[in-house]
């Protein structure tokens, strides 16, 4: 089969591209002119330089393609909604428009469990309604993107499947995990509420398996699926596993959730008044990640996709930390410093 993957130079997209090549599939990707394509070149991926809003380039990428996996997105917890919509919704609309009438087997759209309300979740499934608005641009843009994708399925028959993974971790993530490691080193990590709440983890290899299941199962078309590792992992268990890997002290401060929420809201309000370009250290997105109970049901994915996460948390975090420690050592040797702080987002 021939796959067209967006975001192929990023964390999730690169793992999907690699798995496609390993399975004998041909892969084409659209990448920015400034992107590092060394890995893609090594795997034999055809890289087209350009922008996802270029309809002509999209049509070229779609030639003889069977499957589209759309992973490209602007992520973050700060900034104007319009910036997120510009990257996370408009290119998607251009791609779906180009797919109309195309003999695709599947269009897999990578969404997020962040589309659900920012509250405690205890087994929340796909029937839960999504909020009309979110406090952050990223989550809101993912909601809007899902609406567009499902519209093209209903109105034009584009074979869309929407996947909602939780917190994806694993080798090659250069955004979230490095910040966690740096936060632990600087003793800035807190456990609002005590750290006993669930974290909605999904190891990258489990997510990749789910993508291929979504492609293979015909009943997946037009459906939405929650995805996690299906294993209870508390905030404390996850963070302490990272700390232990780098021989860093465990966080000990556990402010009550209501106090942490008040601080986060105050910090965000002040940052907006200042016109801050980056989110304050204490913000509502971080509070959700480290304070709220994020337990989501994956029963639908188990039942309809046959999704059975193969990689346990203990094995997955061990592999992940081994990769980061190796990266830390390599970067440290190049810069003359060997320590966790060598890893930067």
State mean pLDDT (0 to 100 scale).
91
> What is the straight-line distance between the termini?
34 Å
Q: Kindly provide the radius of gyration, computed on alpha-carbon positions and rounded to a whole number of angstroms.
A: 20 Å
What composes the largest sheet?
Answer: 7 strands, parallel
Structural class designation:
alpha/beta
Helix content: 40-55%
* CATH classification class of the domain at 2-172 and 201-230 and 295-310: Alpha Beta
Would you write up a description of this structure?
The protein is α/β, with parallel strands linked by helices and 345 residues long. The chain has a domain at 2-172 and 201-230 and 295-310: 3-Layer(aba) Sandwich (Rossmann fold). It has helices spanning 11-22, 38-43, 55-61, 81-88, 90-99, 137-156, 176-185, 204-216, 235-245, 257-274, 284-291, 299-305, 313-335, and strands at 2-6, 26-31, 46-49, 67-70, 106-110, 121-124, 160-165, 167-169, 201-203, 224-227, 294-296. Strands 3-2-1-4-5-7-10 form a 7-stranded parallel beta sheet, sandwiched between helices. It has a two-stranded parallel sheet with strand order 6-11. It is globular. It starts with a strand and ends in a 10-residue tail after the last helix. Residues 330-345 have low confidence and may be disordered.
């Amino acid at each position: 089969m021939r796959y067209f993957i967006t975001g192929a130079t990023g964390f999730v997209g690169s793992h999907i591209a690699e798995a496609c090549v390993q399975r004998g599939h041909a892969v084409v990707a659209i990448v920015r002119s400034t992107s590092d394509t060394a890995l893609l070149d090594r795997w034999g991926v055809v890289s087209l330089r350009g922008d996802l809003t270029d309809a002509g380039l999209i049509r070229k990428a779609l030639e003889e393609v069977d499957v589209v996996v759309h992973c490209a997105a602007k992520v973050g917890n700060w900034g104007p909604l319009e910036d997120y919509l510009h990257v996370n919704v408009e290119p998607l609309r251009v791609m779906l428009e180009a797919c109309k009438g195309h003999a695709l087997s599947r269009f897999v759209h990578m969404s997020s469990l962040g589309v659900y309300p920012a509250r405690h979740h205890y087994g929340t499934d796909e029937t839960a309604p999504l909020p009309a608005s979110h406090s952050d641009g990223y989550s809101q843009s993912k909601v809007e993107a899902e609406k567009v994708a499902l519209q093209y399925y209903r109105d034009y028959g584009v074979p869309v499947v929407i996947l909602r993974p939780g917190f994806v971790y694993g080798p090659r993530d250069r955004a979230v995990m490095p910040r966690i490691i740096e936060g632990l080193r600087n003793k800035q990590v807190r456990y609002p509420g005590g750290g006993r709440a669930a974290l909605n983890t999904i190891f990258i290899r489990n997510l990749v398996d789910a993508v291929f299941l979504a492609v293979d199962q015909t009943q997946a078309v037009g459906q939405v699926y929650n995805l996690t590792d299906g294993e209870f992992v508390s905030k404390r268990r996850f963070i302490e596993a990272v700390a232990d890997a780098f021989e860093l002290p465990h966080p000990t401060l556990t402010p009550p959730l209501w106090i942490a929420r008040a601080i986060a809201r105050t910090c965000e309000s002040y940052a907006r008044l200042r016109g801050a370009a980056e989110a304050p250290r204490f913000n509502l997105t971080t509070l959700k990640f480290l304070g709220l109970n994020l337990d989501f049901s994956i029963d639908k994915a188990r039942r309809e996709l046959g999704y059975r996460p193969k990689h346990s948390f203990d094995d997955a975090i061990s592999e992940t930390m081994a990769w980061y420690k190796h990266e830390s050592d390599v970067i440290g040797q190049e810069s003359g410093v060997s320590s966790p702080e060598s890893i930067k987002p």
